UniProtKB/TrEMBL annotation:
Keyword field contains Nucleus: no
Gene transcribed to yield this protein: proB
Catalytic class of the enzyme: transferase
Protein's UniProt name: Glutamate 5-kinase
SMART domains assigned to the protein according to its UniProt record, in alphabetical order: PUA
Principal subcellular localisation of the protein: cytoplasm
Subcellular location: Cytoplasm
Keyword line: Amino-acid biosynthesis, ATP-binding, Cytoplasm, Kinase, Nucleotide-binding, Proline biosynthesis, Transferase
Residues where substrate binds: 67, 154, 166
Positions of the PUA domain: 289-368
Entry's family note: Belongs to the glutamate 5-kinase family.
PANTHER family per record: GLUTAMATE 5-KINASE, ISOPENTENYL PHOSPHATE KINASE
Amino acid sequence: MTAESDSAVGVSATRATIADAKRIVVKIGSSALTSLVGGLDVGRLDLLADAVEARMRAGTDVIVVSSGAIGAGIAPLGLTKRPRDLATKQAAASVGQLALAHAWGTSFARYGRTVGQVLLTAEDIARRTNHRNAQRTLDRLRSLGAVAVVNENDTVATAEIRFGDNDRLAALVAHLAGAEALILLSDVDGLYDGDPRKGHAVLIPEVNSPEDLDGVVAGSGGALGTGGMASKLSAARLAADAGVPVLLAAAADADVALTTAHVGTAFAGRPVRLSSRRFWVRHAADVQGDLHLDAGAVTAVVGGRRSLLSAGITGISGRFYGGDVVALRDPDGLVVARGVAAYDASELTGMLGKSSSDLSPELQRPVVHADDLVSVAT
Ligand SMILES: Nc1ncnc2c1ncn2[C@@H]1O[C@H](COP(=O)(O)OP(=O)(O)O)[C@@H](O)[C@H]1O
Ligand SMILES: N[C@@H](CCC(=O)OP(=O)(O)O)C(=O)O
């Protein structure tokens, strides 16, 4: 089989997985749902609800992640462009979220379908107990036949604890909900090798490995979008780690995207997904402190996938407790891995640089066990 036909098989396999998935997350970007002059585009929203309803009737559980709160709040507040400061963004979101939820509710009511609004902060996903709460709410909405419409809880999220963009939120929700596919709908019809607004660019139909992204320039978003193409690529990587394939397509093609998936760019999921715990360590958890490693420990942990022992730690920073996630830094200060610390920072202070035989028996466990450790490079 030639390399070309191999990749053709890859194309149909990923798209078939997306088309056949029994649980999916569909994320709609602000750029597709709102405009600066017209505000919320209710006609577009109806078409999206039509496509989601059709897929649900075909037997798939669908969770919607809808951006657009800030975009929908701009005109009613008499603003003329997307605000930049946090307080005005939050004011716009508080006005716009009401309009957005109402529009989704009205649109799905055409089918007798009930909508549940789920507003999440990054903390709701970073803490494992909150994480389970969100999971239970989504599960119960599904079992009651309602469709969940998720957005970031913009009015309470501060700059430090934001998801940053809804592409990332959608990928985290896909993991949390055990979805088998993620569909990102935007104002662009797929991934191009460069920003299509800036001149000639070529559509990339399939991304099967990081090498397929060589030379791709992921530019910024439009006047209303948040992260541009860079945030979609990092969300696709995050979803791939959870074994979830991603389709990036235009919202105008939502019907095709949600039926055959024969449109846009398809990103393959990892064949071997990270365990739920390691996924959480790498992508979802908040980092509470840092461990500074010597060169030998970096090699053992990153290259050899071994547990981190106190002998290889030269310093610590931050106030963390056993069970918290910490960043592991190399001698140049670069983060090379993340892991769950087995000890409190206060206990670790007296253990630095000591080999296990110099420590009392209760302190001889690894500082970060290999099962709780994820390199940031792989
Ligand atoms: N390499 C690229 N391929 C496709 N689109 C790109 C690329 N680089 C930048 N873009 C721009 O990213 C925009 C989509 O991002 P964004 O505005 O954040 O969308 P959304 O609101 O759907 O999240 C598109 O309008 C497109 O012009
Ligand atoms: N929570 C924000 C969405 C921020 C965001 O990520 O927007 P987008 O890049 O359009 O998906 C809002 O509803 O306006």
